[in-house]
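Fill-in record for L,D-transpeptidase family protein.
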Amino acid sequence: MRVTGNVLGVRMRRGLALSVAGLTAVPALVLGTGGSAQAASCTTSTGPNQKQVEKYLHRPVDGKQSAADCKAIRSFQSTYGVTPTIGYAGPVTWRTMTTLTAQKAAGKNPNKAKKCPTDRGRIACVDLTRQLSWIQDGSKLKFGPVPVRTGRNGYETRTGSKKIYWRHINHVSSIYHVSMPYSQFFDGGQAFHSVGLKMWNPPGSHGCVNMRTADAKAYWNLLKNGDDVFVYGRKPGT
């Protein structure tokens, strides 16, 4: 289903917000006060992951939405680029929290489970499950781990063994007509490259491994054509 900007605006004014990921409605919003209706600010609704989100944010765990809960949830959503930023404790927000927990747990030993092969010399590893990437040279960690933003549902980043075959520092997508700085292609049109988005912004890329600018630049300086790339796991929500 395609939702136009005009239709979305009408629904928002009627007190509904649409989930970007699934185009499913979430309950009524508290609107800004004043002489006329203003932009939506906070939902009054209890989300399906209310208790888990409350616990993560060190809020009183009662499973009921409050103004203070909404404020804390909105702050988290804004920090990590989770949209819509309305304070709703839904599956996208909770999934982001669990991904962050897994990323922090990786520490400086992201390949502890030895799922990325390290017997090939220099290799860039991409763990879709944890949305992490790093570069190793044998058993030595050379860079990372860093958060990445991989393919959304229907545009998944393909798994398996790859090699970097083409690099273009100022690439522009011929399909989506967007800038892809520090592009390093490893599988068809899929590449490492920087974006001006937060790595947790849903729903994800069109298959590329999005990176923060500093991380993509470091990858550009560390890797070259012919270097190995290994992608494994499954992105949450796909």
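KEY FINDING: The radius of gyration is 20 Å.
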